[in-house]
Amino acid sequence: MSADSSLNKAHLVRTNADKLARIPQATYAEFEADFRNIEAALHLLQTSIQALIDLGSKRCASLGLDTPRTSFEILERLEADGHLPTDSVKRFAPIVGFRNRVVHLYDRIDPQIVYRVVTERRRDILDLLELLLAIPED
Fold it and tell me: Rounded CA gap, 21 and 12, in Å?
């Protein structure tokens, strides 16, 4: 992944966060009143989190860390090597887990969980982005 590709992924995450902020979400009732809110949120969250996984994977490779076998291992390797703060795995694992749920258990998505991620965990996505971008590339 080139530096340009990393910048493109970072731009995608930031743009998606801005779009997520525009989805009606003052209450769960408002959020779920229009199915498009849930569908849009799912797509924006999935692509944002995937971009973070891609960025983290690239950072692991650039640092010469053992190749992660899972998305969670990306966080574990970066934290263990001191490139992410202590407890980053604990903090950001639910985001990665949510992405895995969307991709693999797409037929069992609970709209209330989507709402909670949009309203309570969106900041984690941006925080993880900044932490990953602070890790030097090649």
Answer: 14
CA gap 9, 50 in Å, rounded: 9
What CA–CA distance (Å, rounded) separates 58 from 56?
5
How many angstroms separate the CA atoms of 86 and 108, rounded? Answer: 32
Residue 5: CB atoms within 10 A of its CB come to 13
Residue 2's pLDDT is what? Answer: 58
Asked if residues 99 and 77 have their Cβ atoms less than 8 Å apart, the reply is no
52-86 burial, b at 16+ Cβ within 10 Å, e below that, comes to bbbbbbbbbeeeebeebeebbbbbbbbbeeebbee
Single pTM value for the model: 0.92
Please provide the average confidence, as pLDDT, over all residues in the chain. Answer: 94
CA-to-CA distance for 133 and 1, rounded, in angstroms? Answer: 13
Domains observed in the chain: 3-133 (1.20.120.580)
